[in-house]
Amino acid sequence: MIAGTGSRFQGRDDIVVHAPARILWQLISDSYELPSWGPPVKSVEVMTTADDAEKLGTARRVHAEFGGKSGYFLEHRVEHVDGRKIGYLIDEESFGLAGLVLRPGFSLELEPKGDQTTRVIFSFFHDPRGFKGRIMNPLIKRQQRRNRLAALASLKRRAEDMVGLQSPDDPPWHKAPSSLA
Q1: What is the number of structural domains in the chain?
Q2: Model-wide pTM > 0.70
Q3: Is the pLDDT of residue 176 over 50?
């Protein structure tokens, strides 16, 4: 399967979050929210003017730390379905993946399951680069899966915390049912 990144599907994981899709969309579509739920992310720089909303084509530099090594990813948004799905292509990175993969990218998709529950689907795409990339691909996919699962668990915690932190003055449709809080 080819994604908006132009590369092949390499893995997918999902999680059910007890929060409305609008909260999850806020977290995944606003790059400045990424450090609040992306475990390795330390900071994000969006490459647009302050007045512009992020959209298709918007670039960002994500500063992260993996295994004690600090570095960055330069990414741009290649998919944007408002309220439902975003996808990014990683144009440049400093962690050494470029020697092993071509056109790495990922997408996050939201599937509302009622007013207060949303399924989040996190997919990763790339093409192995050369012989070494093909040999290393099973290890790369395993590491990507660990990263996806950690990000999904952290996103779930953050979104469910946001639902729990809403003011008692908020309208009732903004609150999670007590059995989900």
Answers
A1: 1
A2: yes
A3: no
